[in-house]
Amino acid sequence: MRDNEVVTLGPEPLTFADVVKVARHGAPVRLTDEAVAAMARSRARVEELAESPTPHYGISTGFGALATRHIDPELRARLQRSLVRSHAAGSGPEVETEVVRAMMLLRLHTLATGHTGVRPATAQTLAGLLSAGITPIVHEYGSLGCSGDLAPLSHVALALTGEGPVRDRDGETKTAAEAMKAAGLEPVELAAKEGLALINGTDGMLGMLVLAIEDLTALLRTADVSAAMSVEALLGTDRVFAPELQALRPHPGQAASASNLRAMLRDSGIMESHRDDTCTRVQDAYSLRCAPQVAGAARDTVAHAATVAGRELASAVDNPVVLDDGRVESNGNFHGAPVGYVLDFLAIAVADVASMAERRTDRMLDVARSHGLPAFLADDPGVDSGHMIAQYTQAAIVSELKRLAVPASVDSIPSSAMQEDHVSMGWSAARKLRRSIDGLTRVLAIEILTAARAIELRAPLRPAPATAAVVAALRQETPGPGPDRFLAPEIDSAVHLVTDQTLLTAAQSQTGPLA
């Protein structure tokens, strides 16, 4: 991304790249003239209804189970202020800045569609917070994923009014009023319907879904890199990855994964060393032979999730909404089920990819299954323990990932005096998926660290150019085989090299772009 590249928001759908630019890279935002005009039109309709003696939900009534009360005009500013203050009820650890910025951007996009009835000036102030790098402090707990991510978005709306804590561009904690004054922004005095429009969306869970798709796209390529290294280190065969075999089961993700494995193992001297009649094994273990089937299925799951996310990025989620013909209608589009389901689905795929990677690591450490490697890849087995406990760390993470794969979206808890009697728990699904992705990153890093050591212990046999490039990149940060040493920093270095895609880039320097 170029410095100061501005992301523009209008009624048209956001792109995945837009979300990543704003959330992760701090890009400023700007509302288009079309968006401002659309908001002005819908605002005029809301103000017309606000003057009507007929109650209209969200404009002249209470909220949720309190919607039966008609609110007098002189109390409506207080109504919106009270809504935001009371709903900013989050608790627990602080949510990551990138998640909050994604949530702010997605809420701003819904405002920009012109279907919520907020004043253009209110949306412009939210855009100002994003562009100034002011991030409201949002907490882990509070959203049930129905009526949107109410508590998280309320903390954002509270900051818009100049209340509550925020972090500035440098990460320093300030009051919202202090940060806004420093940025030349005026706090908003919320008018009819605006409080509700600012908090009634699935933007938190959707933001985390988009960021997860971005992360998993790279991590699943890295999973193919680590699998190829393990296949090579364990004297496995690449024949099972042949395109004609993969075509018999034409899943696109499987084909892509197998293609990556073939590219990674091309011209491997280690592979060539056991292609003759001296190799008596008929088949490799499932964790080697079926790598494309598992990583490929995970890819196809990500593709499905991306389809859902794309539809959500084209949505205007609010209740009630202002339609193009001027009608203001209640609806249930704030229910997070579509997003919650795919968040849970991705957590299942992540756990399974990690589980297979851990099984390959374990094979490299076991003299009964490693085909000639020293026990635990230790320098002097018995005196040294090698990577024995690195595999324990993997196993502990995989066990946690299996627990995190239990769906959140099936666990509805009624709320709001039974008015909101079925909720999505999509926010919870998103939060656990973020932990799952962190776990997968660590599991793959340990597999690569172990496989690199095993490949080096196969010397003088020559690895494939692609796997050799990964080993070389890893050795820029970690030493090669030798006596036991403090292992945790090496694992951390490998995690960093997976996260910033250094190892993936090294592989692609030899293979070209992986699928």
TrEMBL record:
It comes from the Bacteria. The keyword Kinase does not apply. The keyword Lyase applies. The modification 2,3-didehydroalanine (Ser) is found at S147. Pathway: Amino-acid degradation; L-histidine degradation into L-glutamate; N-formimidoyl-L-glutamate from L-histidine: step 1/3. It is found in: Cytoplasm. Keywords: Cytoplasm, Histidine metabolism, Lyase. NCBIfam families: hutH, PRK09367.1. This is Histidine ammonia-lyase.
